[in-house]
Amino acid sequence: MTGAQLSPAEKAAERFTDGEWHRLHPATPLLRGGIVFIAVLGYVLSNLRERIVTFFVGGPDFGGDPLDEIYNRGWEGWALLALVVVLTLCIGGFYLSWRMHSFRITGDAVEVRSGILFRTQRKARLDRIQGINVVRPFLARIFGAAKLDISVAGHDANVQLSYLGSTLADGLRGDVLRLASGVREAERSEAAGGVDGAAVDGAAAGGTAAGGTPTPPPAGPAVALFDANGQPVVPAPAARTAGVSDLVNRRVNEFMAPELDPNAAPPQSVVKIPPLRLFGSLLLSGFTVFLLIVVALLVVGASTGRVWLLFVVLPGLIGSASFYINRFTKSLRYSIAGTPDGVRLGFGLLSTSNETLPPGRIHAVEVMQPLLWRPFGWWQIRIDTAGHSREKGAAGQPNTTMLPVGDARDVERVLALVLPEFAIEEHRAIIAAGMTSRGRDDFVGSPKRAAWIRPFSWQRTGYSMIGGVLLLRRGVVWRSLAIVPLARLQSLELYQGPIDRMLALASTRLHTVSGPVRPRLPAIDREQSVVLFDQVAATAITSAQSDRSHRWGAFPPSRPRPAVDPGANAGTTTATPGGTPSGTPSGTPTGEELG
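Structure for YdbS-like PH domain-containing protein, as requested:
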């Protein structure tokens, strides 16, 4: 197996994965402390606003101003000296902070150490990486910098490299994903198995031979070099002629370039959100319903003589306009696409974000439809992952929202990206039934007696198991379809309340990592719940043992799906005495062992 051809940015970033300590972008002190400077400047201007107005338009002097006191006492020199000392200390502190803030990338981890008086060191193991997010705030984009946010499984275990050169951040993302995928290990194994071929290839490419001896590059055109920030180094004569214009052109190109590189993903895998649909989804949100209720109460209150409500509520209503504006602008250029290293999400107009979720990191998927979206056929997709980026997703939503709003065709394409082995043509009908069907289909549904506690949704409530994936369908007003790959299931729980026991019903809850998706199934037949329990316990262990998606680069993507007993399919398994499903071998691990 050989890895894909590296991009120029990834080749330039390879020298930062040598296991040595490296420093961040030189503008990091300004970018990290820029907010503080802006806040201080705003505070000073707010306190000097009267003096500024008086200077330009004139006005009475009321006295008592600190600047007047300094001038009257002749302390101008001391004030300037104090200002210089404070600025020097701030600049010196930022410089020391930058010098003491370094990172290194080894074959198994990403480490960051920082701090002047109190030193901290964070370490992210590559085999626990859940996603990599490249964030470019507006101010950082002006300096050609970006943040690399590495999400790791665990509480507050993320590692953030802020800031790096924009090109270097993209290159390091690719290199870290190659390390985590196992591609380099596979390449080393192949090199060890074919020494002669590796030596010939290394000599042709100017790399390293199998024996570890560096080989000179072949004669030919000069190879472009890159600096510490991943920017191309221009030869001295050209650098003198390029000057500022090249820098300006580079920044303009970075601002105008699409957030998703067309070469990183095939065009047919890219899903985008039209601005009109995005705007409509915001208007038909729950926040709009809340505003309408508040306006109605305000009108009623004002008509009954409670005019004071206008002064209390009206400022909040005016401020709510910023809610829609921020959500709309931050969701512009939203795109989802499939890449060789996982699903890529990009969004943002001024400040941009581009996150990659490697294969095997998604523990549960939920396709849901609010009531107001139903006439337009719009849906939303959310996921559960073990790690979450520190940055918010599009429009301030959690970064677990894979598709903020889309039609049925968009849902098909996004599911094919996040669950490529399940969301195939032969499963399209069962997925569509889980999204829109009202029951009486291939799903195992609730019995009629469940109508006593689920009068509207009992016919739609049900489950289906296909291979190593469990689908849970529920909800009539707010439709929901949860899809759980059993290879990453944590545990399964059956529980009964007093009313459930009287009606011979039970509820099921699947435990995955913490997230917005809560896979559960209420009001199913008690005997059928025991069958489901044993099916899930057996299939989850088998699927977990055969799953290799966490090392997606070391194994071929088209591996056979784990063998599952035909009786595990929905609606075909019957319970035998003792609660063991027919066709299940004796000694099958139970849900307690699974947990």
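Residues 197-225, 556-595 have pLDDT under 50 and may be disordered.
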